Amino acid sequence: MDLLSFLAKYDDTLKYHFIDSTTFRGTSNRIRNDLIKCTADVVIDHIKSEIKKAPFVSIALDETTDVENLGQERFLVFLDVTSKRTAVTLFQIVCDIISSLECGSKFVAQSYDGAAVMTDHLGGLQVK
């Protein structure tokens, strides 16, 4: 809801519907989820547009434990892989993301947080 309030400052139509409308308050779970999905779709489309213009693409995979760490250029997705932290599963996730962004031919680098499942030289994600 905070994001909608912020966006309403810059969009008169949204401002009307969000603040003044008696029929739309954005408080139902369904409406909130729809708005989150719409916002995510716009952001992903923008990232895809940037990727199409970029000469190359790299990917960084890391677990996030500290909100102060701002080392990434673009945050694409958060996935809970707690129950499936195998190199094979992570490899499939990475392949799916690269495929969905249509950036396979521009993919030049990968980086990880150093966890064994990521960098193990025998069967880690990096090898796959």
UniProtKB/TrEMBL annotation:
Designated name of the protein: DUF4371 domain-containing protein
Species this chain originates from: Psylliodes chrysocephalus
